[in-house]
Amino acid sequence: MTEMVFGTAQVRAGDPILPRWWRTVDKWSLACVLGLFAMGILLGLAASVPLAEKNNLPRFYYVERQAMYGGLALIVLLVFSMMSPRQVRRFGVMGFAVALLMLFVLPVLGTDHGKGAVRWLSIAGFSLQPSEFLKPGFVALCAWFMAASQEVGGPPGRLYSFITAGVIVLLLALQPDFGQASLVLFAWLVMYFVAGAPMVLLMGVAGMAALGGFFAYGASEHFARRINGFLSPEIDPRTQIGYATNAIQEGGFFGVGVGEGTVKWSLPDAHTDFIIAVAAEEYGLIMVLAIIALYCTIVVRSLFRLLKERDPFTRIAGAGLACSFGVQALINMGVAVRLLPAKGMTLPFVSYGGSSIIASAVTLGALLALTRTRPQGEIAEILRRRR
């Protein structure tokens, strides 16, 4: 009866795991991830050299570290993409618990690295940002709650997810890390929408978030300074936003040439938060459009593949992961062109940073696992296969 309704499985029993994975994974999204990583290495060759010289390190010290992190990230992505939805849920919940514990110890053991916000744990010479690893685990946990609430006699999962989201947003805001807090809240809103929440409720939550922003503006000097800088009609050319804006204008359509850019010598975060400014200056609008196209391809293809899914957890978690990944990239680039206030958020797979690239690999690995082809396609597809 199952085969009559859903069609026979595309995965044959006894298949080795790698051939089975290769047949079912979204190869276009996988290729886009590899393309983003390659662009990150290419831009790192230019953006990280000034920092290495400033710190009296070998010229390509940070590029080599990025390649090392990238190799580890690709292994993590491969492992996660081979998981079943149930395994994604289990590892996500366990990862959320560990990351949440690290968030609680940040006020005691954390450091701000001169950024004005305590976001990092320094362990054995390495810095770890717990909030980066918290996001995919948060999505898995809340999707589990929401999916369980749809079962007959199920728990009030939507309420549990709302409480979880509120606690996480509060913890992140206290660091203060309003960028990651807004990203977590956005992911929760997307999942709640996919799970069938009424628009009135979603608008109410958005209104509460706006009120929280007004409160944060009056209570946090760090937050107020960034908002004032964003709203100012004039840009101080000596600030990071000023340098980034000038670099994007200088780059034009084709860029000033490989290695000819100057913004990387002025921007302290040229290799992380403002790496898109380096891309725009040296390679021009062409490179920026290519990067945007890669992100859009991953998000759009993932959402279209999720439309075929009938498992609530897979559909809700996949939407949360895809949208949070895309919006993080959007926020990073929006800050660089002054469409958004400064957030201190990296560009996934492109910016330098071990926490960023490995957490992005976890996110995309889980997304690839949830969007793999399964024997539950649409009826029209099943009938076409039977002709």
Automatic annotation (TrEMBL):
Enzyme Commission number = 2.4.99.28
Q: What is its main location?
A: membrane
Q: Which Pfam families match?
A: FTSW_RODA_SPOVE (PF01098)
Q: Where in the cell is it found?
A: Cell membrane
- Which GO MF terms are attached to this record? lipid-linked peptidoglycan transporter activity; peptidoglycan glycosyltransferase activity
Q: Which UniProt keywords apply?
A: Cell cycle, Cell division, Cell membrane, Cell shape, Cell wall biogenesis/degradation, Glycosyltransferase, Membrane, Peptidoglycan synthesis, Transferase, Transmembrane, Transmembrane helix
Question: Which GO CC annotations does the UniProt entry carry?
Answer: cell division site; plasma membrane
Query: Which reaction equation describes what this protein catalyses?
Result: [GlcNAc-(1->4)-Mur2Ac(oyl-L-Ala-gamma-D-Glu-L-Lys-D-Ala-D-Ala)](n)-di-trans,octa-cis-undecaprenyl diphosphate + beta-D-GlcNAc-(1->4)-Mur2Ac(oyl-L-Ala-gamma-D-Glu-L-Lys-D-Ala-D-Ala)-di-trans,octa-cis-undecaprenyl diphosphate = [GlcNAc-(1->4)-Mur2Ac(oyl-L-Ala-gamma-D-Glu-L-Lys-D-Ala-D-Ala)](n+1)-di-trans,octa-cis-undecaprenyl diphosphate + di-trans,octa-cis-undecaprenyl diphosphate + H(+)
Q: Which GO terms describe its biological process?
A: cell division; cell wall organization; peptidoglycan biosynthetic process; regulation of cell shape
Residues passing through the membrane, by range: 28-47, 67-84, 91-110, 157-174, 186-217, 283-304, 316-337, 349-370
The membrane topology noted for this protein in its Swiss-Prot or TrEMBL record is: Multi-pass membrane protein
Q: In which pathway does it act?
A: Cell wall biogenesis; peptidoglycan biosynthesis
Regarding protein family, the annotation reads: Belongs to the SEDS family. FtsW subfamily.
Enumerate the NCBIfam families for this protein: ftsW (TIGR02614)
Q: What is this protein called?
A: Probable peptidoglycan glycosyltransferase FtsW
Whose protein is this, by species?
Paracoccus onubensis
Q: Which gene encodes it?
A: ftsW
